[in-house]
Amino acid sequence: MPRSQLETDRLILQRFSRRDHNTLDDAIRSSLPDLNQWLPWARLDYEHGDTNAFIRDSLQAWKEDRAWDYSVRLKEQPDRHVANVSMWTVSQLGKIAEFGYWVRSDEISKGICTEAVGRLLEEAFTSLSYHKVTLRIAIGNDASDRVAKKLGFIREGVLREELLIRGNWIDHSLWSLIDREYRSLHRSRVQA
Question: Number of structural domains, the chain?
Answer without folding.
Answer: 1
